Amino acid sequence: MCSLLRLFNRPTSREFLRRANYTVHLLDSYKVVFLFQFFVLLLICSEMISPNGRVDPPPSRHWRNLHKIDAGTYEGICTSERPDARVFGGHVLAQALAAAYDSAPEEFFVHSLHCYFIRGGEENVPITYNVKVIRNGRNFAVRFVEAHQFDKVIHMSEFSFQKKVQFSSFTMSPQFPDVVGPESLETNIQGKIRMMAEGCNEKILRGMGTGRMSPQVEIRPCNIENYLYGSDGKAMKQYIWLKYRIPVEHDDYKLAHSTLAYMSDLTLVNTGQLLFPKGTEFSLGTTMDHSAWVHQFTFDINEWILYEQECVAHAKNRSLIHGRLWSRDGRLLMSTTQEALIYPKQKKSGEEKAKL
Question: Where do the domains of the chain lie?
């Protein structure tokens, strides 16, 4: 209501209302309804658009909604417009890391994590995180976190933290990939819209759930066709630019690390599906376990990050994917390994006979 009053008190709004008030007397009833709907839409836009003109994602979708209940107990939630939607695994991982960070000593930085996604979590339902202190050493600390929903464990993870000291200056990392920059690339959403306009069947497009699960991350694959269609097994590696659009303070390393963990779970299942023929539909694609190693403690999480991913093995419906997250200036930020459970839809015998 306050936003509506502020909107109407603007000089341009008052002049518009004066003219609209005169015009309303000349309009039919259905036109009055249209005018009311226009004002409602204007109010919604005024709430969603930030001062710099950028449309922000709904606050309820921020994974940072984590609250401390007591020592070692935290509660988080991820709300959605879909009551039957599953929580994005990276969301749970990021909240688990944030809870672990809250209990870790100051000046200790996460350097590795290992986790299992045991059950699918439901959105709109609180998730309880229980943090257990495993070790507090001089240079390393370890935390174990269990996430519960409906009195059942849906996720468990282990985090190791390293104290910030005077490290050796010797470093080594692989060569930064030679790929095109993100500015000239389509987003995954733009690619989907274009391909559907060209007559593509939406059911065979891949990686579409990512937009719903993480609307605050902009995704620009270097090869949009492979990302959306698959590669028929001809390419088992893909490069994807990611950009986290919600501002994070440069000195908030805990939030930056949790956000990077959040992003590290994106699109790996999609890479695990590259080997399947184009046109394959999937009945299931989900993360089973995920590991990551942090190589840089300080970085700008709001800059473009390149996610290099490769499916290195697939057997018994499980794909093993390796990944590397790079900063725009060529620093290796994180290495990841994930096992994804992937079930292609089985064609019915009737469909096979019809094709024969």
Answer: 66-163, 188-344
